[in-house]
Amino acid sequence: MNAEAQLAELTRGVVDLHVRSELLSRLEESQRTGRPLSIKAGFDPTRPDLHIGHTVLMRKMRQFQDLGHRVVFLIGDTTAMVGDPTGRNKLRPQLSREDVQAAAQTYVAQAYKVLDPSKTTVRYNSEWLDAMKLTDLVRLMAKSTVSRMLERKDFAKRFAEEQPIYQHEFLYPLMQGYDSVELENDVEVGGTDQLFNLMAGRDLMPQYGKRAQIVLTMPLLEGIDAKFENGVVVGTKMSKSADNYIGIDEPGDEQFRKVMLIDDQVIWRYFDLLSSKSVGEIAELRESVQSGKRHPKEAKKLFADELVTQYHSADAAASARKKWDAKFEADAVPEDIETFALPCEGAGLWLPKALALAGLVKSSSQGKQLVEQGGVEVDQQRVADPKHELATGRTYLVRVGSKNRRFARLSIGTGS
After folding, report:
1. Domain identity same for 102 and 199
2. pLDDT number for residue 163
3. Domains held by the chain: number
């Protein structure tokens, strides 16, 4: 693939690119010399688990790898202790070395579910940041100004509101930028909220005699609680602290379940940022839903299938879909249904009473009301007659409710 074609592939879905012409030139140079580009992305291990929001960056890194380039997966074990002030209107709590090391241990194995290990170098920024002398730190700080730092929206907002800004917070973008100085990477990839920090690296590198990195940002993935309002996706970014995430290491059943909670319109955001389907395939699928040929729920199932397959297996995806269908589809019957042996002295047992005896309703009167409302099925046939009886000597499959459905098998006349 020539440099122009690589550029078209690599810039798909990109928000910020500084500078496009430089990236093209660097790709052309790579083809002439045979030297792969070095692509860096940093992840501060503030929590032990990665979620699929992190993989938006990783998938872009994998694109570079698939085109023959190499990736530096940087674990910010020192910067994590400083605390990234990005997006914060107050001081971010500082973590201990133990907290960071415990979280970092899980990152690499999770990252390799997306990245190609043979084209990935794992580094820790403690390698150079912990070795810095005070004089080195002073020289680093002298390469930026307070006014430049106050260009950050979060700092500017806190300054305007007379909220405290601590001096160590100014260090974070400089430390992240110095990572690029040490690694001499060609490209740094980050979320749109990281643009200031990434540009700090681009600014610092020439001051240390290094060629400036190209900066590339990807959109932030909104959490599973996001909504579609006035034509746009509205919601906070996916994070464990907001409890709106899908973890890479979560069981397949849980990943599938969480995908099915996503808003019908928001799911297309997930397709665009995380699916392996082509732009044309996604557009075709979306049109089929909009035209009514497919139900929106089916589109979400397709995404859930793809997600669970990637992080577990095709068998796990099939199993997760089957379990979800059994629990939530209107005509599906779960496999693990409890059987209740109910006593009956006559020829039959009044249905509302049977429901109460099995604990499916609180009382016979509630059971009678539910039957009258059409909320009870016997052997997959709706029963609306409140006087209906279940014959002694038989076992029935009973379902109560619609959204919060409960199933049971009622064996009549076999109880003591």
Report:
1. yes
2. 86
3. 3
Check whether the bond before 19 is cis (ω within 30° of 0).
yes
Q: Which of 218, 241, 266 is the last residue of a domain?
A: 218
Strand ranges for 57-185 from DSSP E: 70-75, 120-124
Which of the 8 DSSP states describes residue 359?
Answer: T
Nearest CA-CA partner of 9 in 63, 65, 72, 71: 63
> How many other β-carbons are positioned within 10 Å of the β-carbon of residue 166?
12
Residue 24 sits in a domain of what CATH number? 3.40.50.620
Distance CA 157, CA 151 (A): 10
Q: Which of 399, 55, 34 is nearest to 220 (CA)?
A: 55
Written as one string, the DSSP assignment of 99-130 is HHHHHHHHHHHHHTTTS-GGGEEEEETHHHHT
For 320, the token pair is 């997760």
Total-model pTM: 0.71
Q: Does residue 117 share a domain with residue 137?
A: yes
Residue linked to tokens 């979280």: 103
Q: What is the DSSP letter of 349?
A: E
Using DSSP's 3-state secondary structure scheme, residue 321 falls into: helix
Residue 16: how many other CB atoms lie within 10 Å: 14
Task: Please state the φ and ψ torsions of residue 345, each to the nearest 5 degrees.
Answer: -90, -25
Please give the average pLDDT of every successive group of 10 residues along the chain, which has 416 residues.
Answer: 92 93 97 97 81 93 96 90 58 66 80 94 94 93 84 80 81 92 97 91 95 96 92 89 90 95 94 91 94 92 97 96 81 76 88 93 92 88 90 89 80 75
pLDDT at 218: 95
Q: Which residues pair with 411 in a beta bridge?
A: 341, 395
- The structure tokens 């409960």 sit at 406
Domain that holds residue 301: 227-328
DSSP run (H or E) holding 62: helix 55-66
